[in-house]
Specification:
The complex is a heterodimer. Helix content of chain A is 0%, strand content 49%. Chain A contains no helices and 10 strands. Chain B is an all-beta fold. In chain B, strands 2, 5, 6, 9, 10 and 11 form a 6-stranded mixed β-sheet that branches. Chain B has a 3-stranded antiparallel β-sheet with strand order 3-8-7, with no helix packed on it. In chain B, a hairpin with a 6-residue loop joins strand 5 and strand 6. The radius of gyration of chain B is 13 Å and the shape is globular. The relative contact order of chain B is 0.35. Classes of the chains: A mainly beta, B mainly beta.
């Protein structure tokens, strides 16, 4: 079946602009995670959605970052007023159950000029 | 807080040689340990999780709670094993979010 998909695959933006990154999880997966992969920090957890529960936002680095998940499926990560330090690969993962294996998407490479 | 340490950033072996990628962790709670692999230009994918105790692509990993280690081993490395390997931990009660190590780049030379 189809795996986790993310769009766009690459995004180049100017400092100060807002960006939206999209994640389509595997159909039927109730848990959805966003991670960030950067040269300096490695792979870091950002936010977690599970069903209709309140999301776990404990990994978001600043209030410029937000995410939503509509209808328990597609998720959008929004970064407002982007900064150069936001440049990274943003990864989405989903799992069938909270304790299940996480399946990753190909990522969105964000470059902030 | 969870922490994962992979002491080797780079590891180079010859084809047919044994390979061991080290992983040590610190945690609070009940940890679950994973190895993820990322081949060149491919997405991150799960290689092993300790609760399944499977052998995938000839790799095995044993959880040593006394040494808080989860080293990844393969007796005979193949060139196609060349990739970036990440050790990760999740903890029951922490929404199963993964805490990753910095990764080890394994190169298997012909």
């Amino acid at each position: 079946g189809a795996g986790v998909s993310q769009s766009p695959s690459n995004k180049v933006t100017e400092k100060g602009k807002d960006v939206e990154l999209r994640c389509d999880p595997i159909s039927g997966h109730t848990a959805l995670y966003w991670y960030r992969q950067s040269l300096g920090q490695g792979l870091e957890f950002l936010i977690y959605f599970q069903g209709n529960s309140a999301p776990d936002k404990s990994g978001l680095p600043s209030d410029r970052f937000s995410a939503e998940r509509t209808g328990g499926s597609v998720s959008t990560l929004t970064i407002q007023r982007t900064q150069q330090e936001d440049s990274a690969v943003y990864l989405c993962a989903s799992s069938a159950t909270p304790s299940g294996a996480q399946y990753f998407g190909p990522g969105t490479r964000l470059t902030v000029l | 807080a969870q922490r994962v340490t992979q002491p080797e950033k780079l590891l180079s072996v010859f084809k047919g040689a044994p390979v061991e990628l080290k992983c040590n962790y610190s945690y609070s709670g009940s940890p679950e340990l994973f190895w993820y692999v990322q081949y060149s230009r491919q997405r991150l994918q799960l290689l092993l999780r300790h609760i399944s105790r499977e052998s995938i692509k000839g790799f095995t990993a044993d959880l040593n709670k006394g040494e808080t280690s989860f080293h990844l081993k393969k007796p005979f490395a193949q060139e196609e094993d060349s990739a970036m390997y990440y050790c990760a931990v999740s903890v029951v009660g922490s929404n199963y979010k993964l805490t990753f190590g910095k990764g080890t780049l394994l190169t298997v030379n012909p």
